[in-house]
Specification:
single chain, 394 residues, alpha/beta, TIM Barrel
Length: 394
């Protein structure tokens, strides 16, 4: 799939925004993160609490997305709501997410469903997390349980969100467990995630026409000086092993926010004078091109979906520029031949950003923390105009 080279995106390109259940729903009390957030002395800035109350307000959120001109919504299922105790599945929770799928379709919005987005049920963590002896079987069973949610009207399903991020996040959740130096996923954790993903894909392929893949946290690693080999070594353990696992999948989700400069001895600091975001990353919208180009090379041509891309900033004019520059860079790499099927901005709403709490603002839509009132930001309308026309501004 390529563009015409004149600023247009192809017919059928998915224009969307992403969210994650625990970050927006509120009240996910059976989740492992709910328990961790309320553990004294833990690493969380604040608990998720009611989040954006999207479990009850999802219709409003889908409506706002559709009114902007976006054509797709990526949301996740909360495993802990669906299977709060091992083997005990909630019919009400399954019905809730099925209604979300139907609500999207009624508004002309294509649902992209993620089965697992960082959090897991408390019982799953206590039984060994992803490296537990029955983890892959349990995730395959969960996948089978949610087939009624995704079997009609859903074209794309992400099995596991950012396994490479989840693997290193564990070091923050268990202080003292990190290896010396910059953390990399442990080999046994990589193997566990890959095994669980492949089992889930097998189940999903029982549904005709359903495309299955997973999403990888990607960084545009750029060499400084004679650091080509160092970049290869740095990227391999942090993202390439996960991209390699996507060979043969129906697609792979690339989730990219910034670049990192790599010297012969490893990662370098953000350049002096460079603009940074609320969480200290370099403001670098063009990173999406490098990450997509790299993913296409490593996967051998697996179709790509940019399932997350965005910026944490309180200055919405910077978000508007970010999304425009990112899409211009994405179109250029598509012109080179990268098979990109869609772009999803992170995030639809200002939401709970894991250890950092509610301070970082990634959303296209602001949410009042007291009233839950939604306010569409100007950057959302800039993005929506691009989505409506399929063209970048001159």
């Amino acid at each position: 799939m390529t563009t015409d080279g004149g600023g247009a995106f192809p017919e059928g390109f998915l224009w969307g925004a992403s969210s994650a259940a625990h970050q927006i729903e509120g009240g996910n009390v059976a989740s492992d993160f709910w328990e961790l957030e309320h553990t004294p002395g833990g690493p969380f800035a604040e608990p998720s609490g009611d989040a954006c109350d999207s479990y009850h307000r999802w219709r409003e959120d889908v409506g706002l997305l559709a009114d902007l001109g976006l054509t797709s919504y990526r949301f996740s299922l909360d495993w802990s709501r669906i299977e709060p105790e091992e083997g005990a599945f909630s019919r009400a929770a399954l019905d809730h997410y099925r209604r979300m799928v139907e609500g999207c379709l009624q508004r002309g919005v294509s649902p992209v469903v993620t089965l697992q987005h960082i959090t897991v049920p408390r019982w799953f963590r206590r039984s060994g997390w992803w490296t537990g002896p029955e983890a892959a079987d349990r995730f395959a069973r969960f996948t089978e349980a949610v087939l009624p949610v995704v079997s009609e009207g859903v074209g794309w399903v992400c099995t596991i969100n950012e396994p490479n991020f989840a693997a290193t996040l564990e070091y923050d959740l268990a202080p003292g467990s990190a290896p010396p130096g910059p953390a990399v996923p442990a080999p046994e954790t990589v193997e566990a995630f890959v095994t669980a993903h492949r089992r889930s894909v097998e189940v999903l392929r029982s549904v005709p026409g359903l495309s299955a893949g997973w999403t990888v946290c990607a960084v545009d690693y750029q060499p400084v000086g004679d650091a080509g080999k160092a970049v290869d070594e740095w990227a391999r353990l942090r993202q390439d092993v996960f991209l390699e696992a996507a060979r043969g999948d129906d697609f792979v989700g690339v989730q990219v926010y910034t670049r990192e400069l790599i010297g012969p001895d490893g990662r370098l600091p953000v350049p002096d004078g460079a603009e940074t975001t609320q969480i200290g990353w370099e403001y670098y919208p063009e990173a999406v091109a490098g990450a997509v180009r790299h993913a296409a090379e490593i996967t051998g041509g697996t179709p790509i979906m940019v399932t997350e891309n965005g910026v944490a900033t309180a200055d919405d004019t910077r978000r508007a520029e970010y999304v425009t520059r990112a899409l211009r860079a994405l179109r250029s790499v598509m012109d080179e031949g990268a098979d990109v099927r869609g772009y999803f901005h992170w995030s639809l709403l200002d939401n709970f950003e894991w250890l950092l709490g509610y301070a970082p603002a990634f959303g296209l839509i602001a949410v009042d923390r007291s009233t839950f009132r939604r306010t569409v930001k100007p950057s959302a309308r800039v993005y929506g105009d691009i989505a409506r026309t399929g063209h970048l501004p001159d």
